[in-house]
Known about the structure:
mainly alpha, about 60% helix, AhpD-like, disordered C terminus
Amino acid sequence: MSVVDPIPIEDISHPKIKEIMAVAAEWNVPDQRFFQILAHAPGYAQAVFDAMHLSFAEGNVDHKLKEIMRIQLARQAQAPYFASMRSKKAIEEGLTEDRIAAGYGDFENEDQFSNAEKWALRYTSLMYTEPKKVNGDFYAEGKKYYSEAEIMELGSFIALHYGVQVFFRTLGVGGRVKVKN
Length: 181
């Protein structure tokens, strides 16, 4: 049970929350409970969702790779709620559970990932587990595969999603469940 009670859907009156819930439903990430909890602070709910959605749905880095990274981050953050979600768009584009599992497994030795993807997955893994390794040499390697704008996209994505995932874990939001209104 969450330490912050989700607001019943029928009690959410802020029109922007309803609007962003509809956008999230199209992607299947995040789900209704995310908004029921954040609706306690509607302005923050909108800002957090806008930043999360922009980092996830926009940009030049492949969405399927970002989905693998998002799930890897959720597993690192020990956030089963976010780890259990799957982007509808990524699945429609062909992302499989096997590829997702490979992304949080021994991805360095997986032939199915390009060197660029391995660097991005390494970035995802190291930023919070071994931040001293994310240094000038690390970024120089990343520039072989990504533009500086794409590196900023990846870094912002990692920082934002990991932070939100840890926050929700501290609230006691467990795995994805059907929310009662």
